[in-house]
């Protein structure tokens, strides 16, 4: 065999020898729909560097001293990994996205001016968009499957009339909260647990358009001079948005949904949030015009419980509600809803919760319901409770009834009044009758973990007495992880029950009995 023949034979053998090494490399390559982490060998990196400067190597690099084995150059979950470029779209999804963009632009050309026509009802506007969109899709003349056509129509309609990729999450009754951490990361809360959603925005600009659409409908604004805002949706769902430069990794959007039909006391009993005995007691407290403060952390259900307590207010009473963003869904007829207002672009025109509380005292209210006290308005609220406006309701952020008292004292100091601490505690002890503590447990459930009476002031300390407390000693189910305990009576009868007798409000005697005594008394 000549020398040239031996060289050609060896060259034909090299690819076969390399096949075992090439197969694992191909298997470990990026998969469609996987997390945004690229994989690159030294050859790929060199090719990328040749193709264009400025590309970042966020994938795996091979080291010469480890036998060619690759190791991740980016730690999973790190800031670099979270902001790595998303995986390239498949040709099908990319083509569908282009069709979607063309369809949206064509639809805007057709009906753009009529989208803001005040003479069109919501149903008429949806029918118009649906009709025009079907024509736009027909004109595209693309070989779309039935599922792709349905998806295209739904996504374009959501972008035009709804909130884009978030619309399906808003329509899903199982989703209670939506959290957007930039255009590529969307998380939802279902059954008290957080999970990542496959929904995503096409770009940061797409996310910003959705945010601006939300805030503009309630007369708010968000821009570089005012990069954070509180707003609400048409159904009362609470919205908070933060944009760059405050939000480093892209615009952040948080939506806390509220049920289309407000939860009633029977719903909370069914969920296990409270027991029937506790519901009877709280109804009697509201009817007896006791001042109640609902305490709890973020997401524990304070507003939901405040809605339920407000439903116990008898018909015929004038109710004034005061909130940062209107969320309460009172079912009574005689209700006045007040909402605070942020300053305008010139820094003027601000109306605070404290201003509204002061003004409400001149509106002849039978009940004042403050969505949440978080500043100097707590002093005005306590003074209102002490000057004839009994039966007021409010919420405060605190982890226990004792912490709620301490937080009220701190909030009063924020009013700017140079009051001695004893005077503040006298105001709190005299104004607040009942503290209802809500807790979100580790298993995701929300429970009323304490109903506490404010006894009064002994020395320099506000004294409290629990009527109901949660039994943590029952433990946790080993299989489901659910807490086995329940909120049970302590056996102590609150002093405010004497007022029930004076007002003719009947209360079953077994309510305050401990569980063993309660079964014996029946």
TrEMBL record:
A GO molecular function held by the record: ATP hydrolysis activity
Domain of life from the UniProt record: Bacteria
Every Bacterial type II secretion system protein E domain range: 162-442
Composition skew (Low complexity), residue ranges: 25-62
Region (Disordered): 25-94
Pfam families named in the record: T2SSE
Family: Belongs to the GSP E family.
Protein name: CpaF family protein
